[in-house]
Each structure stands twice: as C-alpha cells, then as structure tokens.
Amino acid sequence: MAWTQNVLRVNLSSGETVKEPLNMTWADSYLGQRGLASKYLAEEIDPAVDALSPDNKLIMVTGPLTGTMASTGGRYSVVTKSPLTGAIACSNSGGFIGAEIKMAGWDMIIFEGRADTPVYLYLENEHAELLPADELWGTSVWEADERLHQKHQDPLIRIACIGRAAEQGNLYAGIINDLHRAAGRSGVGTVMASKNLKALVCRGTRGVGNLKDPLRFLQAAEQGKRVLAENAVTGQGLPQYGTQVLMNVINEIGAMPTRNMQDVQFEGAHNISGEAMHEPRSSDGQPNLTTNAACFGCTIACGRISTVQKGHFTVENKPEYWGASGGLEYEAAWALGSDTGVDDLDALTYANFLCNEDGFDPISFGSTLAAAMELYEMGVLTQQDTDGVELKFGSAEAVTRAAELTARGEGFGKVLGLGSKRLCEKYGHPELSMTVKAQEFPAYDPRGIQGMGLAYATSNRGACHLRGYTVASEVLGIPEKTDPLATDGKAELVKAFQDATAAVDSSGLCVFTTFGWTLDDIAPQLDAACEGDWTTEKLLEVGERIWNLERDFNLKAGLTGKDDTLPKRLRKDAAKSGPAKGMVNELDNMLPRYYEIRGWTPQGELSAETRQRLNL
Amino acid sequence: MLRALNLEPQKCTGCLQCELACSYENEGVFNPARSRIKVFNFHDEGRFAPYTCTQCEQAWCLHACPVEAIVLNTATGAKEVLEDICVGCKVCTIACPFGTVNYNQDSGKVIKCDLCGGDPWCAKACPTGAISYVDLDNTGLDRMRAWAQQRPAGPASYNTPQSPTNPTDFTRQN
To answer: Is the pLDDT of residue B83 over 70?
Structure first.
C-alpha cells in the first residue's frame, strides 16, 4: 500500500492531537508529499489568509516511497502558504526525518492554530505529545538539537527544528532537519515560528511495509539503482563533486549570476567550485571537503561534509565551528559567493554553517545581501545602515558578518531578513531586487539559459530552479539537448519539466534522480509499491493536476498573470560576456505559448475546460 | 568455503540501504530500528561506519545462553538465534562484548546477524562496496592488494628491492 493511511492533526491552539485516515481518493489523484499536501492545504485554508496568522496551516508530508528501499526514498516536504511570496510554498528536504515520520506510522502531520507559548511535538510511533519549549526558544537549531537529544536520552531520535532567524521573523527562514538538511525556501520556517512551534522530535520503530507487490518492488528498485550507478552524473559527477559539479560548467556557458546579476560570469568561480573543495588548502594542506554523505536510502550521495581551516579568520578562536558539518552545495556557493563577488571558499563554508545553524535560506540570503551591496556601492546604503559593515562586493568579511547578524536577526540582519524585494523597496530601488513573486533567483542566469526565464516567471513558488529544471536539457542534454540561447519549443519544454517534477516531488524520491531517471524509471517502482495503476502517463497527468492546483491557489491568494514576469535587468540589460553576450531573456516570446499549452486564458487563468479536464 | 562480512568504513556514505535490506529480509518491513547491522555517523569528524556481528569462533552469546537458543550454523559459520527456544532473558546481550546482540520489544526475543543463511542482504544492498561478503580466510586481501600495488612500475627485477614509500591513503577517495 506504501501509504500508512494515517494523518496526524495537531491543533496548536487547543493542544489536541488527533489521528485521521488519509483521504485515499485524493491520494489517487495527487499521489503524496507535494501534491497531496497541496490538496489538503487548498481544501482547508482560504488562500487569501495572512501567512503568519493562526489561520494558516503547516503540513509536514512524506511520499509513498519515503522510507522504502527505493534509492533516495527518504524525502519529505513542508507545505504551507509562504510569508515571503504570498503564494503556496512547498519546500523539500532529505536527511532522515522524512523516513522517521513514516517509520512512526504517519503519511503527514498537519499543524494548525498557534500555541500560546513555545512548544515542540514529540512523536514516538502513535504517541504524539506537545511539550513545552520555552527554554529552547532563542536557541539555534544546533543547540536545540543537542539539548533535545540530551533531554530525551535517545541518540536515535530525529529532529526538525527552526533557529533564531525564524523566531526573529526572517521571511526566508527554513526548517532544518538532521543538523544540515533543509526545507529551505519560501519561509516555511517563519510560518513554523509564527505557530510557536520550535521542533518536531520523532522516533519511529514501526517500519514501512505492506507494499502492493514487494518482490516486484525490490526488482524495480534494484533496476533503478543500477541506472543511477551507471549514469555519469548520478554515478560519478554528483558523488565526486556534489551539485558543485555545476559551478565551472555554468560559469563557462555564461549563466552564472554575479554581483546581483549585473554580470553572467564570475572570475573567481573556480576558487569556489566542487573541484576546489578537493584541493589541499595552502594554509593547512587539508581539503575543504571532508567526505561526501548520503541522505536516507540514497545511492547517489551528493551531500558535502566540509571542515573550515581552524586558523581561518571566520572561525579563529571559535572551536564550535572546527568540526565537520554540511558543506557548500552549488546554490549556496553561488548565492553566498558569486552573487556577492566573494571567492573565499572557507568563508563561504562558514557562512553556510551559519545558515544551517540558525535556519535561513542561503539562496535568498545571498541574493538579498547582493542587492544590499549594490545599494551600498551606489551610496544609497551607508555604514550607518549596516551596523558599520562595509558592504562591498568581494568582501568575505561583509558576507560572514552579515550572515552572523541575519542568523540572530540583529540590527541590519533584521533588514536583510526581509528578503530582496522588501529591502529594495524600503530603500527606494525596487528595480534592483532580483526576484520573481518576491522570491530570490537561484544560480542560473536566464539570459544564458532562455527556458529558465520562463520556468522562473511561471514557478508557483516564485523564482526557483527546482520547479522546472530545463538546465538539464538546455545545458546538460538530459534527456535531450536543446539550444540554451533559443526560445523555440521552450514553452513545451518548461511545461514538461514542471509536470514531471511535480510528480517526482510527490513520490518520496529526490529530484536529483532525474539526472539519470525519467518517469519511465520511477513509474515501475511506484506501481509495484502503491495501490492503483501508476504509469508514466498517469504520473504526468497527476503532475499537471498538481501544477494547476498550485496555480489556482495562487490566483485565489491574489496573484495574477502580471506576476509571471522577470526583473527588468534580465529582460532589458544584455549579458556582458560569454556565449550569451548581448542577449536578454526573451520571456515575451515564450509566455503566450506557455499559457496556450497550459490551457489557460491569455491572462493566465485556468480555463473552465482545463479545470474539467483535470478534475479541479 | 566460509565467508565473512567485510566492513570498510572509508567507503560508507551513511545511506542506510544495508539497514533497510537487513530489516526487510528479517522482518518483512523496511525498518532500520530492527536492523541487525547499524551505521554510525560520527558527525563532527565527517565519518560513517557500519557495524555488525563478527560471528566469533568462541561466541560469548552462544556460551552465555542458558537455554541453548543460540546455535552454530555449520554451513555459514553464523551463530543463529532459535526464536522458538529463546526466552528473552537478554543474558546474551550482556555477554556480547560488541553490542551486536539486541533485544526486540515487539517479539520478546533477541535478534542478531545470521548472515541471511549465507546470502547477506546488507552486502547486496550496499551501493559503494563498504560491505562485502568475502572468503573468511582472506578478509585482508583487498588491503594487501592496495599495498602490493605500491610496487614501482617497470619490469620486475631481483636486484632492486624497494619498499613502498607512500602508503596508500585509507581515507575515502571522494
């Protein structure tokens, strides 16, 4: 059956916890995880609700393959309305907490209301209890994690937790699990803080079983693992260099957003690349990278575990940062480094540690800081605004100091916690905010990868690379190569990626498998595990339904087709170097066609026919 | 030929596929809490290590059991728990110096690695080769080969004896 068919509803206002059966009709239409929780959210809250009010809900959700032996089958998502974007938010995380929730016997946990005082949820199999967290409030994720392990005297509990950034109202705060995996984007941690919920502490010993056809499932999972092992990206590139395998590649093709997206290539890219993480440091002869690491059940193991050199200015006399911890992924390295013009690998690693320690999104933070740096260099911001920090592009001290302030929500860190859009508006230059729907861009400049411009503009959670990663096709040739500088056929490409990704995000599997897998590799695993007929065609239909459900939620929340756009800089200011030199993103060439094939009106609204076709 | 589980921590990524495979083979569910093999994460050092029963020749658990519920499987060399006879007294869990025999609250019996009757699922599931099932008398073979490979290149010669000057780095090559 793969689903546990159990939903835990936690009313934080009343303190009640109730077990409910999973709506299996919805599971058949929305699969699990992202899709299924989005359906629950859309049914249960008014999309126009204030994201930080008790009327918003926060759903932690697993997929049907979470906790199984399928490779990467350990994912979970957090679904809620975002305080950053006002749109639906779904942030996906690996690590081990997702599988632990499933092992405890739950498909999803719905948090509603708001606790009067700080609490955390202790979940041990069917036993669910809200416990006081007054003494944990004001602590970092790492400190809370240590204290909770001590308190419960159980080394095997898994913890998902918010840090001080979320408590201080940072609008892009995430929920960190297992110390350095994150449901990172769109401020899902901020919503958790607004509910006075500090952490989920979970221990599951029930296991995951009861699959539809266990033998066929094991065979399908085994076949899937073989494909991943034999694929050059998932079998070699990712384990060796992590997502950082992309740093030099994307810089070469001139799609590396640099200095708040003023440039498309970063002269220091190599110094902060996956290759550089392997190179012995001149200071101590050790590489930045200590080891690679896997999330639950993952046979790729792209995770980076890094160590900062003890004498580096960022950690000198701070032994608490001398141990190994979650290292730089490509997105963090880009946002903290290239976008701020900083190429000091250990400084970026330290800043990344802080993002994990206090739970804030390094993409949004780096991008917001980059906008502030541009304002500083224009003279709009001065040292009086920045607590004395010289916010110059290229300054490693500025990045690490800003990260320290943001982690605690102190002084200028509070302003940086507003995100790029609100910060730029506050200082009278909204045009400098590199965002879509108020969410900051990830690491692919859409002037050099045209399809990504459309993917960003139409993403249901604001600018995001994980909603439709056409980079795979446009740059890496997966599943087939398209011209990154052309707009022809990109509407179709973006739609195909968006729909397929929505299905993958609903399965319990990691989207990185799709460097090696197509839905044809995933469908047999789902079909053997889950009741019903799970073919590639059905997954695409489910994916399209999820996409339209999210769109519908956003329209009801007050967003319109006018929000499907890109900052002027990307549409009017040409790329200055590289293969895309002289080019802007030609969004207008792609968007009308996209609406048409989506079955939306020219204004970007769902047509009656589309609603009917998808049973919305 | 008897075989042994050969654990190479430097190859481990901490993915827990071995725990999933072990629990599925033994309990019919994916459940690391009931795995006979455990992966440990030494977080601050950036190290992972799988650990399980070494199948001691003179097995403390077997000798300690008051009802003779732990017996030798002569075909595999594994010390196996006979569930029907085990009374859940837990003396074996105390006797084992390595902690690899453990009690299971759900069944009221103890559980330990039995080499899956000679076809250990953990080894089959490990994606990096950190767990392999090799000739019991030659668990050092791969390490010997790695040292032997240090021999300088070129034709063999009787009169230029050389010893390895750069021992293999046994930290995992990423």
So the answer is: yes
Tell me, what's the pLDDT at B160?
A: 52
Q: How many helices (H) and strands (E) does chain B have?
A: 5, 8
Give per-residue pLDDT as tens, A5-31. Answer: 999 999 999 999 999 999 999 999 999
Q: How far apart are the C-alpha atoms of A45 and A55, rounded to whole Å?
A: 7
Contact at 8 Å (CB) between B172 and B10? yes
Entry pTM:
0.96
Residue B151: the pLDDT is: 75
Beta-carbon separation of B34 and A209 below 8 A: no
- Of the candidates B7, B101, B99, B20, the one whose C-alpha atom is nearest the C-alpha of residue B48 is B7
Q: Which tens digits make up the pLDDT trace of A68-86?
A: 999 999 999 999 999 999 9
A204 touches chain B (CB under 8 A): yes
Query: Cβ of A208 under 8 Å from any chain B Cβ?
Result: yes
* Unique residue bearing structure tokens 């403390």: B60
- Residues A267, A76: Cα–Cα separation, whole Å: 37
The residue type at A429: H
pLDDT of residue B170: 42
Tokens 């990868």 found at: A449
Facing A240 at nearest CB: one of B17, B27, B174: B174
- In chain B, which ranges are E strands? 3-7, 38-42, 47-51, 70-72, 79-81, 102-104, 109-111, 131-135
